[in-house]
Amino acid sequence: MEPKKKNKPNSLVIILFSLIVLMIIIYFILATFFPTIFSHMNTGEIQPVPNK
Question: What is the rounded radius of gyration, in angstroms, for the C-alpha atoms of the chain?
Answer without folding.
Answer: 22
